[in-house]
UniProtKB/TrEMBL annotation:
It comes from the Bacteria. InterPro entries: DUF3545. This is DUF3545 domain-containing protein.
Length: 59
């Protein structure tokens, strides 16, 4: 009779889906939202003051 070798199954690791993909998606959406907020703020400032220059204000 053949011996059962229980050690071979341990070498094969089944990878489960990690949460990094969803965390990366959330981070990307946060970055996108931050960029949108920045653009909204610039637009509001330009609406209030037509001479507003974003580049010179952020230096």
């Amino acid at each position: 009779m053949d011996r059962l070798d229980y050690g071979t199954g341990v070498d094969e690791v089944i990878e489960r889906p990690t949460r990094t993909k969803s965390a990366n998606k959330k981070r990307k959406w946060r970055e996108i939202e931050a960029i949108k907020d920045k653009h909204r703020l610039i637009k509001e400032l330009q609406d209030m003051d037509y001479n507003f220059d974003y580049d010179s204000a952020m230096r």
